[in-house]
Write a structure and sequence with these properties.
This protein has 159 residues and is an alpha/beta fold. Strand 3 and strand 4 form a beta hairpin. The chain has 2 domains: 70 residues, Transcription elongation factor, GreA/GreB, N-terminal domain (Helix Hairpins, Orthogonal Bundle), CATH 1.10.287; 77 residues, Chitinase A, domain 3 (Roll). It is elongated and about 70 Å long. Keywords: DNA-binding, Elongation factor, Protein biosynthesis, Transcription, Transcription regulation. Pfam families: GreA_GreB, GreA_GreB_N. This is Transcription elongation factor GreB. GO terms for molecular function: DNA binding; RNA polymerase binding; translation elongation factor activity.
């Protein structure tokens, strides 16, 4: 399944800050450390040199990824027409048949965070929620079977 290119404004800013930090602060520091380690002589057994070169490759790989990804991401801002329905960026309070409550925010795949209850727009739960309203019912196929949820509340954070 292809991942979507949607992202919240704050999510885009977070990725952009990471890119700037890696390129303007972290990479020059590591480059200097590698240069200093190389000046010490034998590079084949120089741990600082070997680690530094590995870290530079990791940074360069992440910089390339972020540069390409930020070009294609589409920032989705809140719009008043979204009120009352579930769209990208929405917070949703769900309740299952057992009365258990869950809250999720629908975000882009680059910013999902289970610890914050942020789920990707590409997830089965988010796909089932899109376009629904309060008091609607959704059914989600999970590895353990179908789960039914009721939508109690929908709200948006205006960024």
């Amino acid at each position: 399944m292809a991942k979507s290119n949607y992202i919240t404004r704050s999510g885009w800013q977070m990725l952009d800050q990471e890119l700037k930090f890696l390129w303007k602060e972290e990479r020059p520091k590591v480059t200097q450390a590698v240069s200093d380690a190389a000046a010490l002589g034998d590079r084949s057994e120089n741990a600082e040199y070997i680690y530094g070169k590995r870290r530079l490759r990791e940074i360069d790989r992440r910089v390339r990824f972020l540069s390409k990804r930020l070009e294609v991401l589409q920032i989705v801002d809140y719009h008043p027409q979204q009120e009352g329905k579930v769209f990208f960026g929405a917070w949703v309070e769900l309740e299952n048949e057992a009365g258990e409550i869950a809250e999720y925010r629908i975000v882009g795949c680059d910013e999902f965070d289970p610890a914050k209850n942020w789920i990707s727009i590409d997830s089965p739960v988010a796909r089932a929620l899109i376009g629904k309203q309060e008091d609607d019912e959704i059914t989600v196929q999970t590895p353990t079977g179908k789960v039914m949820w009721f939508i109690n509340r929908i709200w948006y954070e205006k960024e």
